[in-house]
């Protein structure tokens, strides 16, 4: 049960939840593959590899294209040079800015917990002018652990003033990594159904599902007191 006497901290995943970054990631990946004489991958294929961080992304690319360990290491380094400030093709999902503003106006401490490296995370938040709304930003390289390990999410909640051992808080995400991480903390998980998830929603632990950010503030108010 999550009962908050004050507005609950709400932490968000980033890629596939607040932003559609797959087109930029796809462009960076294919630029590197082409440079090394490897056939490019489709957007849908690359999107299906997103969520576990850069190492998981390139492990999946290597498996799909037959790269050896040395090629994978070199290509991942080239990718990071491009990825650090890749924002041209990235978009906020519709209604995100308004939903974040409504939650902030209601006093909810807001944070980010993503497997995206911190540098690219800051770059994209700055690009959209929303970095200042978040009291904490935990990236994929902020801690030794990444999601689905619960440590990054617990750190985000603790930074927002919640008890890291038993946070009275909510997590919003889109993927299997997010659902498993929230369950491990544990905190209620709200899942955005238009993200990068591959598993059917009914097979993932979640408190609620939404496909429109206009509905999120109301969902959070309802489930914070549930």
TrEMBL record:
Keyword Magnesium among UniProt keywords: yes
Record bears the keyword Metal-binding: yes
EC numbers on record: 3.1.3.18
List of residues binding Mg(2+): 13, 15, 174
Catalysed transformations (reactions): 2-phosphoglycolate + H2O = glycolate + phosphate
Pathway(s) served: Organic acid metabolism; glycolate biosynthesis; glycolate from 2-phosphoglycolate: step 1/1
Residues annotated as catalytic: 13
Primary role: Specifically catalyzes the dephosphorylation of 2-phosphoglycolate. Is involved in the dissimilation of the intracellular 2-phosphoglycolate formed during the DNA repair of 3'-phosphoglycolate ends, a major class of DNA lesions induced by oxidative stress.
Family: Belongs to the HAD-like hydrolase superfamily. CbbY/CbbZ/Gph/YieH family.
Protein name: Phosphoglycolate phosphatase
Protein source organism: Paracoccus spongiarum
